[in-house]
Design a protein that fits this description.
Layout lengths: L8 E5 L3 H11 L4 E5 L2 H10 L4 E5 L7 H10 L7 E6 L4 H9 L4 E4 L4 H34 L2 E7 L4 E4 L19 H5 L1 H15 L5 E7 L5 E13 L2 E11 L1 H23 L3 E6 L4 E4 L1 H7 L3 H4 L4 H4 L2 E3 L9 H8 L3 E2 L4 E4 L5 E12 L5 E10 L1 H14 L10 H18 L3 E8 L2 H7 L2 H17 L6 E6 L2 E7 L4 H16 L2 E3 L2 E3 L3 E8 L6 H17 L5 E3 L2 H22 L3 E10 L4 E12 L5 E2 L1 H11 L2 H21 L5 E5 L2 H5 L3 H12 L6 E6 H4 L3 H14 L2 E7 L5 H7 L4 E4 L1 H6 L4 H16 L3 E4 L5 H10 L3 E2 L10 H12 L1
Parallel strand pairs: 1-2, 1-3, 3-4, 4-5, 23-24, 26-28, 28-29, 29-30, 30-31, 31-32
Antiparallel strand pairs: 6-7, 6-10, 8-9, 9-10, 11-12, 11-17, 13-15, 14-16, 15-16, 16-17, 18-20, 18-23, 19-20, 21-22, 25-26, 25-33, 26-27
Helix pairs in contact: 2-3, 15-16, 18-19, 19-20, 21-23
Keywords: Phosphoprotein
Pfam families: EAL (PF00563), GGDEF (PF00990), PAS (PF00989), PAS_4 (PF08448), Response_reg (PF00072)
Amino acid sequence: MVTKQSVATILIVDDQPSNVLLVHEIVRDLGEVLFANSGPQALQMVQRVVPDLILMDIEMPGMDGLAVCEAIKADPLLADVAVIFITSHHDDSNQIAALNLGGVDFLTKPLNLPVARARIETHLSLRRKSRLLDEVQRDLRDIVHNLPAFISQWDEQCRNVFSNDLEGRWFDISAEKMPGLALADVIGDINFATVAPYLKALLEGFNPSFDIAFIRANGQFLHGQVSFVRREQDGQFCGFLMLMTDVTARKQAELALHDEKERIRITLNSIGDAVIATDDQGIVTFLNPIAEEMTGWLGSEAIGLSIELVMPLREGIDGHVLQNPIRIALKERRIVGMALNCTLIRRDGMPFEVEDSAAPIRDHNGKITGTIIVFHDVSEARAMAVKMTHLANHDALTNLPNRMLLRDRTEQALATAKRESGRVALAVLDLDHFKTINDSIGHTVGDHLLQQIAIRLKSNLREIDTISRQGGDEFVILSPRIDELEIISTLADRLLKAVAEPFFVDGNRFDLSASIGISIFPDDSDDMESLYRHADGAMFRAKQEGRNRVRFFSAEIEDVLKAHLTMTRQIRAGLEDHEFEVHYQPKLDVRKKIVVGVEALVRWRNQDGQLVSPAYFIPAAEQTGLIIPLGKFVLKQACLDGKKWHQMGYSLRIAVNVSVVQMMEGAFIATLREIVDETQIDPRFIEIEITESILAGDATKAQTILEAIREVGATVAIDDFGTGYSSLTYLKSFPVDVLKIDQSFVRDMMVDRSDAGIVEAIVQMAKSLSLRLVAEGVETRDQADTLLGLGCDIMQGYLFARPMPASQIDEFLTKNND
């Protein structure tokens, strides 16, 4: 349905064409004119187009004008259409009836055309103004009801007259239900108590505005901005308007901003760095407590002063004034780091080495509004860096240059010698038997000795020489500019004498000696690695020749070193290629004439099929650590073979030699457990043979290891017993099960009364301590008979059997034990 046209629409309703023409003449230029010649037709037309004015005859056949008017007025969409009746009768009753039905005027026939036109124009004008007023009222109503605000009118008793809250979104009361309610009932007693002072101001003639936090029915806060507008009639208070806007979002933003400012303030006051803020002219606006402490200025004193006065900076080396980074940040509009070696002079004159940066602060338009500088005291950090640099290049115990610094100085000395065709000497000094001091007296005393030795050695060197501790008890001396070999020879002799002078620690005297090896550039070597290797080889030769001496490198020493390296490579390859075998030497109970055990002995069958003597490869394996995988192989193979013999019915003890390197390696016990679990051998038949040298080292560690062997279930035998020292102490202190009399005593016991006495003493000692005995190296019947006479029943040696492969042991057992 069309409800609004650009020009007035006039509907003429009359059943007489002549009347229609006449009326048309009157209104043709007043708007769009429509015609209907009956009441029903008129009703159909007004459903399609709502006219602004209907000119309708009362007397019409079928449905008269009054009935048409009544039907039109009954339709809410047509009720405000203006209807002017035209009639030829002057009956007041018709006029009254027409007016009662909603007619706005009458025109009587015959029509007075000017009067009729004037009256029609008047009604059209009223119609236009009424429509404009309706539109204004509708727009105003839409605005009021859709404003994001609560608008209400209240009478002098604070009772509601009007509210724009159609849906009750503000106080859960719709505009329809609010009229007549008291303000306290609408907003709640708590909120009413809050606004009461402002209502009092309203009565006193004011229009107060205020912010308030309303408590909603659901308990949430609604932050509102409220205005009361006083209404008067005849100068008397008659009520007021209440306007309220929801400023919750703004209030929350303000609170969030406040919280953020507080968080930033607490953060700035809590961080470990100093923070100073300035305006865009470099005038201080803020200092945090650390900045106050470092500058010596309180915030209340510093605010308003220039940054240079509060934070004067100097160059750390020559002390000249430095430009504050804030000035550069303001000028160049960028983040600026402080200069190196920057020193802050505190208000009392105390200097602080500082570092960090300054940055400009920009507003939302990008305009610089100030700066902030963050800095911290790096005095300790820089001192620590210097200290760490020193520690990185020096030995922590002796404060001598370490390997890294020695390498750097050696390379410089070699470069200089190459340019000047000069000589450089490198000496390796190793203390003799120093490990014994650490093992017997303790590392604390050993460390004190090393510190004294370092001081004494350094005092006997030239200014251009460098002495370095490489670890343990080894020192390396670099001597550049050796014009004559006598210089380094004399220097080395002086160092030996310095070490030989007595040392005292905690009142105890220590007499030491050292071995020195020397290599010369370019005579012996052309780079640092070979220079050190050759000097180390010469030192090794000095120890071999009796210690406490100096030896220079020679080609013979180099050959020995190369042979050692070759052996190491061959052993490693032999392990990878499974060239090692385990042979066994039987142990017999000579009195019962049965085999009671075997000793596992490693053999190496090289690629030519020849057996290599253990004396050739065992020392090299121990020195390189290859004894660990080699020893694990022997232990596992011996357990596998032992398990097989046990399953054949022979209760043999399987003895396996374990070196010092294996024993002191942290994983030995775990390896033993792993092999026992894997081979499923009864651990009671495993006998771990150790030498007395293991017990002479770290006694606490040895005790722990031996007890762990016992926990696994195996037994412990001391091999070569009697060749070491403090044997009685070991037997008393350590968990030992078996003593093996060394073959050197057995070999000469028949011709040397001392050896015979030693053997007899060992046998008696073992009996008194309830230890089992095994005699090694028995080669003659006389030796066997004598040992039997002394009470030693278990023997091994060439008299009974040589070491043999496992397959031959099978035959040997069948022959001797069946």
